[in-house]
Amino acid sequence: GAGVSQTPSNKVTEKGKYVELRCDPISGHTALYWYRQSLGQGPEFLIYFQGTGAADDSGLPNDRFFAVRPEGSVSTLKIQRTERGDSAVYLCASSLGSASETQYFGPGTRLLVL
Amino acid sequence: QQQVKQSPQSLIVQKGGISIINCAYENTAFDYFPWYQQFPGKGPALLIAIRPDVSEKKEGRFTISFNKSAKQFSLHIMDSQPGDSATYFCAARGNAGNMLTFGGGTRLMVKP
After folding, report:
1. Where would a tag sit more exposed on chain A, N or C end, judged by fewer CB atoms within 10 A?
2. Cα–Cα distance measured from residue A60 to residue A67, given in angstroms and rounded to the nearest whole number
3. Greater model confidence, B4 or A98
4. CB B76 within 8 Å of CB B62
């Protein structure tokens, strides 16, 4: 079956612009996670959805970052007024439910802010 | 602050050798410890995972050893192959939340 998909695979933008990153989880997975991976580092948690609601957004670095999952499936991570320090790979993962341990990751979106 | 510390940062092993990667954690509330393998340009893929109520788990050439009292766990790759060359991440999940806390990664190169 299809895994987690993310679009676009690469995004180049200019400082100050707005970007949206999309995640399509595995069908039937109710839990969805966003992580950010800087070059040479491990992924860092951003936000976790159970269904449509954000169950934990403690990893969002500031109020320029926002994520939604309006229908409990596809999620969009939104970054306003991008900064060069936002350049990273943004990873999405999904799991069967909140109690499920295994998180399946997508290939990521490589964001470069010039 | 929840942290998982991983070592070494990089590792070179001859084909057929044993690769060993170590991780240490502080938060005793962690209840699930997965290892992920990541190839360049790809997302992390689950390799093997363990819960703290067992001391060892083996799946094929991959073994996790877990020392609860020392708050340490390690990944052993037996008979390492060039195809194992990748970056490996240990992680931990807290029982108060579902997010994973990752180590910094180990870049493994297996020489033919």
Report:
1. N
2. 9
3. B4
4. yes
**Is B1's pLDDT higher than 60?**
no
A30-47: average pLDDT: 95
Burial zone of A14 (CB within 10 Å; 0-12 exposed, 13-18 middle, 19+ buried): exposed
Measured in whole angstroms, how far is the alpha carbon of residue B89 from the centre of its chain? 5
pLDDT, position A1: 56
Using the Cα atoms of residue B93, residue B94, residue B97 and residue B100 in order, give the sign of their dihedral.
Answer: negative
Query: Residue A60: which of B28, B99, B79 has the closest Cα?
Result: B99
pLDDT at res. A31: 93
- Residues in chain A whose Cβ is within 8 Å of chain B: 4, 31, 33, 35, 40-45, 48, 55-56, 58-59, 91, 93, 95, 98, 101-108
CA A69 to chain centroid, in Å, comes to 11
- Spell out which residues of chain B touch residue A33, defining contact as CB-CB under 8 Å: 98-100
Strand-pairing partners, residue A34, are A47, A92
β-bridge mates for residue B4, sequence order: B25
Q: Is the pLDDT of residue B4 over 80?
A: yes
Contacts of A40 in chain B (CB under 8 A): 105
Strand-pair partners of B36: B46, B89
